[in-house]
Structure to design on (635 residues):
């Protein structure tokens, strides 16, 4: 699929399509918008304290926060894949009453303000939450303000990105491949693992990268549900925000690190998302 | 590997599918080792019948039995899932798994049945060798030509040594040139297959060349069943006559000369050796009042047995040998003053005869 898209994109010649009548007045707001979007990035690069940079980003605090961010975002993505791919399969392949409602509920975190998500997580899994209080009673463990809570908050916010991406890919996979596998004696699970999953590979990869990027940048739900304890719950975005108050140079340096990670993600996704 | 007795099981089915404005009702009997072609126009219900046999579509009534085993019986409520049926299917567009190599496609059924990877791949390689595709074993389906993909699909369907092989328009996706050679190969492989084969096609040539028995389906009903020779010589309905408007001869070729069992001889353009089929379209045969002169290599005399009007065309059945169906225009009919029992001369060019190796 990706190959075909790439071929057609390369086969098309660059330049103005002679059939397009250009409304030149649109160029003005478009140009203003482009400057608006790019200027902050330029500002960040201009004001970055380049000569302190190595010492700023190699301080133990930063390294701890960066490692915590990478680990929790990766764990959240792994959970999202294990749980989200089956959800996507159900949404794409099964026709049942309430499917639209289920899809709306599952993708709600996409539009829900993350702070509200954090509050909701506290009410469900907090010490006095609907489920959390029972867990505390039975197992004696409490989820909020732990590293695990960071992963839970990130998964809650980021998983819908993966589900939406994988569901779209699944709709592009001909269901008759399942039939072909059945005629060859394959059970349903064998078919899913050996036929469907490999065909979903690119969709899962793209969804996982989006999910991971969203988890890495998570702020609102994390600080609400997990707090901001250095070493256990203080991820990069939280550290950037706190650093801004007493060490602006450190905040800028940390933002630059996040920018570099984001650019790397875009570069990795360019074949799938940046070609039109 | 299953014993030969099990492999040679016959397929018996009564397939009824009710739709809102349409009904399929077909009885099929396919002895082990033989090929039944379901021939009919698109929308006649042929593919629906295949889907029922494969268990991909429940029958509204009837049964599917293979040997002593019941795959489906609407009366008793028995219904095996597709993966529990000993099947191989070649789909019209093959449905090769795009993420797997040709080898892994062929090995898939064996892997699904629990065979270990290397063992399954060894068997798959054997099948790829049989369809002459060893060099393409590690290629993905997208890299294969249409004819190669068709052979991989056939190897994949046969690799699990199923009791029943189903072919859904196996040649429809190929261009005319490839179709001819692939058809010959397919005939050879079907000859080696010990189970029951059901072939669905809208192309009479596929049915006549590949099948031992032909069932013509029209509007969801089997209108005629018989060997290819019976169907072409004695079409029971006008529809069948039009559909299988072909002259089919079996004979022995010795280069470009083919001797038919009744002593007649046909000359062809290309050299073939051994047992062959010869196909001549009724429209390619010319009718003359006197001995024709000129280029045609095949000339013989015969008596007109029957005359049938089909729109602008008139179909004559002429007793030779060889006996043939001939299509002439109504204008030619009047001009030549043709009628039953008239003696006429027939001619056909060597290049208008299509020859298929029988094995």
């Amino acid at each position: 699929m990706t190959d075909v898209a790439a071929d057609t994109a390369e086969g098309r010649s660059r330049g103005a399509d002679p059939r397009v009548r250009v409304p030149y007045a649109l160029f003005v707001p478009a140009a203003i918008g482009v400057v608006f979007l790019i200027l902050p990035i330029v500002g960040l690069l201009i004001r970055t304290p380049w000569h302190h940079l190595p010492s700023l980003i190699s301080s133990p605090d930063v390294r701890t926060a960066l490692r915590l961010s990478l680990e929790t975002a990766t764990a959240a993505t792994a959970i999202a894949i294990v749980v989200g791919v089956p959800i996507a399969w159900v949404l794409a392949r099964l026709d049942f009453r309430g499917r639209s409602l289920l899809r709306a509920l599952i993708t709600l975190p996409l539009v829900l303000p993350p702070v509200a998500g954090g509050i909701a997580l506290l009410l469900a899994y907090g010490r006095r939450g609907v489920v959390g209080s029972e867990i505390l009673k039975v197992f004696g463990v409490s989820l909020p303000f732990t590293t695990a809570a960071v992963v839970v908050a990130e998964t809650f916010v980021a998983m819908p990105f993966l589900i939406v991406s994988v569901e779209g890919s699944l709709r592009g996979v001909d269901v008759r491949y399942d039939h072909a596998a059945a005629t060859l004696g394959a059970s349903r699970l064998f078919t899913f693992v050996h036929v469907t999953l490999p065909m979903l590979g690119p969709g899962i990869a793209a969804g996982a990268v989006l999910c991971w990027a969203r988890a890495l940048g998570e702020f609102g739900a994390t600080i609400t549900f997990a707090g901001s304890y250095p070493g256990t719950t203080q991820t990069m975005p939280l550290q950037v925000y706190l650093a801004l108050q007493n060490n602006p140079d450190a905040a800028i340096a940390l933002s630059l690190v996040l920018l570099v990670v984001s650019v790397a993600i875009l570069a990795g996704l360019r074949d799938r998302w940046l070609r039109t | 590997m299953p014993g030969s007795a099990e492999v040679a099981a016959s397929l018996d089915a009564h397939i009824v599918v009710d739709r809102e404005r349409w009904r399929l009702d077909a009885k099929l009997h396919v002895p082990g080792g033989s090929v039944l072609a379901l021939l009919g126009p698109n929308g006649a219900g042929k593919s629906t019948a295949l889907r029922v046999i494969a268990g991909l579509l429940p029958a509204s009534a009837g049964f599917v039995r293979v040997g002593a085993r019941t795959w489906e019986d609407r009366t008793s409520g028995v219904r095996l899932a597709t993966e529990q049926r000993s099947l191989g299917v070649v789909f019209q567009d093959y449905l090769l798994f795009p993420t797997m190599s040709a080898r892994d496609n062929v090995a898939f059924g064996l892997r699904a049945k629990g065979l270990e990877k290397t063992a399954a791949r060894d068997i798959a390689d054997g099948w790829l060798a049989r369809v002459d595709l060893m060099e393409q074993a590690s290629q993905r389906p997208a890299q294969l030509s249409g004819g190669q993909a068709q052979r991989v699909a056939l190897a994949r369907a046969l690799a699990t040594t199923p009791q029943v092989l189903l072919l859904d328009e196996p040649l429809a996706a190929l261009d005319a040139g490839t179709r001819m050679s692939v058809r010959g190969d397919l005939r050879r492989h079907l000859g080696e297959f010990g189970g029951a084969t059901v072939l669905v096609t809208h192309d009479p040539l596929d049915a006549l060349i590949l099948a031992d028995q032909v069932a013509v389906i029209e509007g969801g009903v089997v209108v005629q069943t018989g060997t290819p020779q019976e169907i072409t010589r004695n079409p029971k309905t006008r529809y069948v006559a039009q559909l299988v408007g072909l002259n089919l001869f079996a004979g022995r070729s010795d280069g470009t000369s083919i001797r038919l069992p009744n002593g007649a001889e046909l000359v062809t353009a290309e050299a073939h050796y051994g047992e062959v089929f010869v196909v001549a379209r009724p429209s390619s045969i010319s009718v003359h009042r006197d001995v024709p002169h000129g280029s045609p290599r095949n000339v013989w005399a015969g008596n007109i047995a029957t005359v049938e009007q089909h729109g602008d065309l008139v179909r004559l059945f002429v007793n030779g040998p060889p006996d043939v169906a001939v299509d002439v225009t109504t204008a030619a009919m009047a001009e030549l003053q043709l009628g039953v029992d008239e003696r006429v001369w027939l001619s056909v060019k060597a290049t208008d005869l299509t020859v298929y190796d029988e094995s």
